[in-house]
Design a protein that fits this description.
alpha+beta, four-stranded antiparallel beta sheet, 2 helices, 16% helix, elongated
Length: 167
């Protein structure tokens, strides 16, 4: 027989478990290159700017570096904070550029990462400029209710002898 006190706490434990599960999900698998602290917090991690590297999953030899603000404090420590919408991107050729067996879409999302508990995501979209034989990468954030006009763009020219396979 369960005590009345434990029965009253069950919904709270269920909610806490759901919040922890949601906060653990949704990473894009980027590799953190480094971070700098911007605001000291007495409790929890400091606010910081982080730089992550993301290899393009469909284009070998291209890596995108994304810098963004990461909220600290107690909310940041538990994954409950909403990070700022601003981000910067720089994509570079880091090896021999090659493409898989399948042609690329003219425009597609390369990766996305959660930057708030539920509603906001940081996204990187790859576009192909066939006229200039260039890969263009755009980063922006979106929300379920409204998007953000803040964005950043970068481009990686593909060597003249290599043709980008487009659908």
């Amino acid at each position: 027989m369960t005590s009345p006190y434990i029965r009253r706490l069950r919904p709270a434990f269920s909610t806490l478990g759901l919040l922890l599960l949601v906060s653990a999900c949704g990473g894009a698998g980027g590799e953190e290159i480094g971070a700098v602290d911007t605001v000291f917090k007495f409790i929890g991690p400091d606010h910081k700017i982080v730089v992550d590297a993301y290899d393009d999953p469909k284009v070998a030899g291209v890596t995108c570096y994304v810098s963004r603000a990461k909220t600290g404090g107690l909310k940041g420590a538990f994954g409950l904070a909403e990070d700022k919408a601003e981000a910067s991107i720089a994509c570079r050729q880091t090896g021999v550029i090659s493409f898989g067996d399948k042609p690329l879409d003219k425009q597609e999302e390369m990766f996305s990462e959660r930057i708030s508990l539920v509603f906001k995501r940081l996204r990187v979209v790859r576009m192909i400029d066939t006229k200039r034989n260039t890969l263009v990468y755009l980063t922006y954030s979106d929300r379920v209710i409204e998007g953000s006009p803040q964005n950043s763009v970068t481009a990686v020219p593909v060597p003249a002898g290599t043709v980008i396979p487009v659908k």
